Hints:
This protein is an alpha+beta fold. It has three domains: 1-173, Orthogonal Bundle (Arc Repressor Mutant, subunit A); 177-254, Tetratricopeptide repeat domain (Serine Threonine Protein Phosphatase 5, Tetratricopeptide repeat, Alpha Horseshoe); 269-432, Alpha-Beta Plaits (2-Layer Sandwich). It has helices at residues 23-34, 42-49, 59-77, 103-119, 123-134, 143-147, 153-175, 179-192, 197-209, 213-231, 237-247, 257-265, 307-313, 315-321, 348-368, 394-409, and strands at residues 2-4, 10-13, 16-17, 40-41, 85-89, 92-96, 281-284, 330-339, 372-377, 380-386, 423-432. The strands form three sheets. A five-stranded antiparallel β-sheet has the order 7-11-8-10-9. It has a three-stranded antiparallel β-sheet with strand order 1-2-3, with no helix packed on it. Strands 4-6-5 form a three-stranded antiparallel β-sheet. A hairpin with a 2-residue loop joins strand 5 and strand 6 (92-96). Helix 7 (153-175) runs parallel beside helix 9 and helix 9 (197-209) runs antiparallel to helix 10 (213-231). The longest helix has 23 residues, at 153-175. The termini are far apart.
Amino acid sequence: MQFRLLxxxxxxxxxxxxxxxxxxxxxxxxFLLLHANRVVPTSQLLDALWxxxxxxxxxxxILQNAVWRLRRALAHASGPEDxxxxxxxxxxxxxxxxxxxxxxxxxxxxxxxxxxALAAGDPLxxxxxxxxxxxxxxxxxxxxxxxxxxxWPQLTAVQEKRLDVMEDRFEAELACGGHHAVLRELEAFVExxxxxxxxxxxxxxxxxRCGRQAEALGVYNRVRAALVGGLGLEPGxxxxxxxxxVLTQDPSLDLPAEVAARRDHAPAEAGQAPExxxxxxxxxxxxxxxxxxxxxxxxxxxxxxxxxxxxxTDTRDRATEEPLNPRQPATILMLRFQLGAEFDHLPPxxxxxxxxxxxxxxxxxxEEFGGLAAASIGSVQLGYFAHSSKEACGxxxxxxxxxxxxxxxxxxxxxxxxxxxxxxxxxxxAAGTPR
Length: 435
C-alpha cells in the first residue's frame, strides 16, 4: 500500500486506488499522513477539519466516525504485510506506516541524500538524486483538499520545501556546468517566484555563463523592483555583490576550467554509450510528462563564458567545414518528441510553431555537444556524432544531448507548468556504426 500526498491524495494498492470517502475522511487521513507515526491530538485534528468557531456541536462524533470508516477502508484494502495501523493514542490518533509507503517521506529521504552529496562536493550525484526526489511531485501537495479550501500551515511548509529543493538542484546543475540545461526551467521558476533571491541569483549566473550579461542584469532589476514595490526592501547584500560581479565581468563567475573539462569528458549521466568498437542500441532515455509552451523558445545569443561553451559556439561552423566520412565510426542520434492530444487540434500556424520550437531545441543541443543536426522530419530530429580522439566520444555526446533536451523540457508541474503542454514525452535512441 502506497500513500500519495505530493499531488491529489491517493492510496494505492496492487488492486488499484482505495476509495477514501468524503471530504472529512480524506482531510483526516491527509492530516494524519502529514504527521505519520506521531500522535495527533484530537483538538488539532478538529481545528484542521473545521475553521475556528465553525465546528458543529457534533464535530467530535463526526471525527470518530471518519476515523472508523478510514480504519475499515485501509484494513479491507491492505495485505497483512503492509497494513497501516490507525490507532487511538491519548490525546488523539496515530497512523503507523513504514516510511517507504508515503511519497512525502521518500521525498524527504532522497532530499537528505542529495543535500549530503552537494555538501560533500559531489554536485553530479546531488543533481541526479534531487531530480529523482522532485519527480515524485504530481502537483500541489494534497491538491484535491487545497481545491476545497484547505490551507494548513503544514502544507505551506511542504510546498516551500519543494521550492528549496528545486533551488538546491539548480545549484548542483550549475556546479556541474549545466547552465544551458537549466536555463529555461530557471526562467520559469523566477517568473513564478519573483521574490526568491537565491533562484534569481542562480538565473543571473546561468545567463552570464551563457554570454547574456545584459539579461542577467535585467533579472536583478526586475527582482529589485518586485522587492521594493512589494515589501519595501532592497535586495540582500549577496545579490547586490552578484550584480557588481556581473557588471565588472568578475572571473569568479566563470565556470572553473576543471569543471568544464570534466563536463566534456565525464561519462554520460544516464544510460551507457555504445562501445567504441561498434555497438548498436546505445541508450533509450525517457522522462516523465514534459511540457513546452509553443511560444517559449528563444534563441540563445552571445559568447558563453566558460572554455567548453566557447568551443561549443563554433560547433556549427566546424560541422559544416568537415564533410561527413562514411568510413568514420560515428553515433547516430534520433530524438522523437511525443506530442500531446491537444497538438492535433491546433491551427496550422501553431502546429508549425510547435514543430519549429522542438526542432530548434534539438538542433541547439546537438550542436552544443559537438554533433551535427542532420535532418528534421516533423517531431523527429536526427543528429550525427563522429568519434574522434581529439574530442569526447561521440556516443557520450549523443547521450548528453538526450539528457539536456529532457531537462530543458521538464518544466515543473503545478503552478510553474504551462497551461497547455504540447510535448508529453521524449524518446531518445542512439546507435553506433561499426569500425
